């Protein structure tokens, strides 16, 4: 299927690795002009090379910390009029309520709610004027099935999803959609870190740790980043203009609710 985004400008945040990189790769493969972003210049350069190797496309790289005004400004200066915005950022540390301070919540809200909202606010007007826009927020399946130690992540990401839902009522008539992707366990560096923790705590092998994580869902495995990237690309497609305000969970069927 031709997704109809050849030549469209796509800004993909926190995309030097993991799910952000997978989304940038999928969009580049579909012919979009892609700007990737990260805090580590060397890692970002490696991501550029990987996308070029896998897709034949050249992408633009912008070094910057999305948690800062300067980092967001650098990304917007490089691509002031994107047709596609994929919001992504690092998640806060896990911890139960008695382990957390006010500063922890403020940092989580800034990274996972306020920073992506600042980018949305900066670009949505132009999208509406051009009558095309796709905004995809990468949040977490934890929002639907939170673990006790993931309160920081859940609270901040749920806030982003709530205001995204409100925003889309105004902009979808201008062919600007706003959706959320909620990943479960995917084979990324973050999951590798969690698996290593299980190895250290439970005295099991790395393969056993991955198997245990995958066994939590009925698919019996963890997701592969390219599966996530392709789902993101479809939500950015010209054909997806009637899909807005939705939360798509990618967790191998683990979510047990109907809605």
General description of the model:
The model has no long low-confidence stretch (mean pLDDT 96). Strands 3-2-1-4-5-6-7 form a 7-stranded parallel beta sheet, sandwiched between helices. It is globular and about 55 Å long. By secondary structure, it is of the alpha/beta class. The protein starts with 8 loop residues before the first strand and ends in a 9-residue tail after the last strand. Helices cover 47% and strands 14% of the residues. The protein has 8 helices and 7 strands, in the order βαβαβαβαβαβαααβ. Helix 1 crosses helix 8. Helix 1 links the parallel strand 1 and strand 2.
List the helices and strands and how they pair.
Elements: E1 9-12, H1 18-29, E2 33-38, H2 41-55, E3 60-63, H3 69-78, E4 84-87, H4 102-130, E5 133-138, H5 151-171, E6 176-183, H6 189-202, H7 206-214, H8 225-235, E7 247-250
Parallel strand pairs: 1-2, 1-4, 2-3, 4-5, 5-6, 6-7
Helix pairs in contact: 1-2, 1-8, 4-5, 6-7
